[in-house]
Write a structure and sequence with these properties.
Elements lengths: L4 E2 L18 E2 L15 H4 L5 H26 L13 H8 L7 E3 L5 H7 L3 H9 L32 H18 L9 E6 L6 H13 L3 E7 L2 E2 L2 E2 H4 L9 H4 L2 E6 L3 H18 L3 E6 L18 H11 L1 H12 L10 H25 L18 H16 L10
Parallel strand pairs: 1-2, 3-4, 4-5, 5-9, 8-9
Antiparallel strand pairs: 6-7
Helix pairs in contact: 2-3, 2-4, 2-13, 3-4, 3-10, 5-13, 6-7
């Protein structure tokens, strides 16, 4: 579907007249890397439009692609049990994360590793989680890619679709009460729930949107519309104009953005966050993109979509390639140690690839979590029934120690 494109940044508010026909797509940068508005206007709406910030965002997008490639191959080699790639959606992660504060609470799905990466989650931490070793913050209790970090205000990911959406309303309500007591704007926050177009078909989506609007909470519902809910295409999921068109029915502000445009995503998220906090009301953002990868390592997407379609998006619609083109146009060699863009990109790609390989090799060598950790973290004080179960398990292992290697689960 071809969508109208606009470079006018404006939320459609609940009382505004909704767009006639299809909702427009907000874009600042075309596929060839050229800006659609004057570059002296960009800094007013984007906080990534300076050499240092832009190159940092670019490096993180490359880091994300390298991590995806290497960890996916590791799963194919049997070194980890499962993996989900976010190839083609890197600009969504980095652009959105750069517009947020650490005060903002993230409730993600399972394809937002870049948001966590931007906040400071290290390659070692990603690798430790995927290999379920003793340094994994989840102590090996979760499937790979189910990241979480209390320190970075990133709720641990849950496999079932949509569960984070009603939770984002609760988080938003808590932040609403905190914001009312907070005088400094810089210390106010919002909740941000990331989800895919498939999650918008769940009952939790309706529940969350309705509660968010009626309770008037500062929660942003950020939909990554990447064309597929596993093997179900958007054409089979709904007959309306995507997800954003549902917002007026809930009485919610909304905007649609080009999810492959780093600057546009960043600008939209800044506006959405400001509105959510200032008015204590929810916002719906729909980012249009394309899932270049299989749904997961358990999926073969060539069974339900044409390889030519995938290759066309990888060539013409890729967000990293688009930003590569921008860098080539911008001529920011001063921030690239004097290198030309092609050599700079190759160097960064090599550096990030080696960094991911080092993190993975180190994670693979670490021991598994100790068996005793199975019974920790759920209760503040361990209840009697859990103590009994722990005692029975440890006695069983002791009686059958020849079957249990030291340090194993």
């Amino acid at each position: 579907m071809t969508l109208p494109i606009t470079s006018k940044l404006k939320l459609t508010l609940p009382n505004d007249e909704t767009p006639s026909g299809s909702w427009p797509l907000f874009r600042l940068m075309d596929e060839d890397g050229h800006l659609r508005i004057q570059d002296n206007v960009i800094p007013n709406i984007v906080n990534l439009y300076d050499t240092k910030s832009a190159l940092h965002a670019h490096r993180l997008m490359i880091r994300l692609t390298q991590m995806d490639d290497i960890f996916l191959n590791a799963q194919r080699q049997g070194r980890i049990s499962f993996y989900m790639s976010c190839r083609g959606e890197e600009a969504i992660h980095i652009g959105a994360a750069a517009a947020l504060s650490l005060k903002d609470v993230i409730l993600a799905q399972y394809r937002e590793a870049g948001v966590l990466m931007y906040r400071g989650f290290t390659l070692d931490q990603f690798a430790d989680q995927c290999f379920s070793n003793k340094n994994d913050l989840g102590r090996g209790r979760q499937m790979p890619v189910h990241y979480g970090s209390r320190a970075l205000n990133f709720h641990t990911i849950s496999s079932p679709l949509g569960t984070q959406l009603p939770q984002a309303v609760g988080v938003g309500y808590r932040l609403k009460m905190e914001n009312e007591r907070q005088e400094q704007e810089s210390k106010k926050g919002c909740a941000v729930a990331f989800f895919g177009d498939g999650s918008a078909s769940t009952g939790d989506f309706h529940t969350a949107c309705n509660f968010a609007a009626t309770l008037e909470v500062p929660s942003i519902f950020f939909c990554r519309n990447n064309g597929f809910a596993i093997s179900t295409s958007v054409e089979e999921q709904y007959r309306g104009d995507g997800i954003v068109s549902r917002a007026p029915g809930y009485g919610m502000a909304a905007i649609r953005v080009d999810g492959n445009d780093l600057f546009a995503v960043n600008a939209v998220m800044k506006v959405a966050r400001r509105y959510a906090i200032e008015h204590s009301k929810p916002v719906m953002v729909e980012a249009m993109t394309y899932r270049q990868s299989h749904h997961s390592t358990s999926d073969d997407s060539t069974r339900y979509r044409d390889v030519k379609e995938i290759n066309r998006w990888a060539s013409d619609g890729d967000p990293v390639n688009r930003f590569n083109n921008f860098l080539d146009n911008a001529k920011w060699q001063g921030g690239m140690d004097g290198e030309n863009v092609e050599l700079y990109i190759k160097r960064v790609r090599d550096e990030e690839r080696f960094a991911v390989l080092r993190a993975m090799e180190q994670a693979e060598k670490k021991q598994d979590p100790d068996l005793s950790t199975m019974f920790e973290d759920v209760y503040h004080e361990k209840p009697h029934h859990l103590k009994r179960q722990e005692k029975e398990l440890l006695e069983h292992v002791k009686r059958n120690k020849e079957y249990y290697a030291a340090g194993s689960h």
